[in-house]
Amino acid sequence: MVEVYTTAPASVEPDGSAFRRRLAEVTRWTDAAGHTGLLVYSDNTLIDPWLIAQLILERAARAVPLVAVQPVYCSPYAAARMAATLTFLHGRPVHLNLVTGGSRQHLEALGDGGVGHDERYERLSEFATVLRQLLESPRPVTSTGRHYRLQGASLPHRPRQPPRLVLSGSSEAAVKCADDLGVLRFAYPVPVRSYPAGRSGIRLGVIARPTAGAAWKAAHDRFPGDPLGERRHRVVAKLSDSHWYAELAEVEASGVYWLHPFRTYRTFCPYLVGSYAEVGAYLAAYFARGVESVILDVPDAEDDLHHARLAFDAAG
């Protein structure tokens, strides 16, 4: 059966209490839907993902945070210790999403702008290798790599069940990194007719209803036209060195596959819009090509997950 995550809301609420209420809602909805957990993504505009993960674990009965881990933000030891700490405190594992950062401006702001795209994935591979050793090795870890050096390092509480590692990216360097590490790779998918076969995960939004007309009305109500957003998208498409952003920016969307929310800078993933049967058939085509896990976009309401579940059911 295909595994499903949702996505935690971005920390853009007017204050912390409003954000905590919104996060608690989405966490509760995810739990009620029986999904695996919530993606917690991270960049320079958002609050610390580890603290969001702590809030999720406090509120969820089953769902776990899938925390974005970016080498520019922390060392592999700091990430391993935080993951182990959360597992120790809550008795449940966290999942870790390995990322390199896609905004050139954000990387430059942190003094990392001179590191090339492929080199960031080479560093991420070493980061993840050291991270995994710290979390899994019964002995202190010594590492003398290019980017990270440890001498007899160990964690205060090594988890009995190590965190699951996944990786996000769609470039050749990302594919190689995921293969070298032996982890599932998530991508923002192109239309299924062009989607490469092989074991993978995808991130997208789903707006499904009993009829196509009702689904498209809900889609346009949620994502109306936005000329300013379109201009921001065009600027980002020129400045970003992320392979996936450039790839999606060139895609010709049609039918169930919808890119309007992406091209108005409302979200970063494509959407599938249509009846349960239409969306289910499109999902089934992805599954037939090797997709085994899906991260859904941030739900707008609890009903979104109910409708999405019926589309997944239709996919078989």
UniProtKB/TrEMBL annotation:
Keywords: Flavoprotein, FMN, Monooxygenase, Oxidoreductase. Pfam families: Bac_luciferase (PF00296). It comes from the Bacteria. Residues 19-182 form the Luciferase-like domain. Transmembrane segments: none annotated. This is LLM class flavin-dependent oxidoreductase. It comes from Dactylosporangium vinaceum.
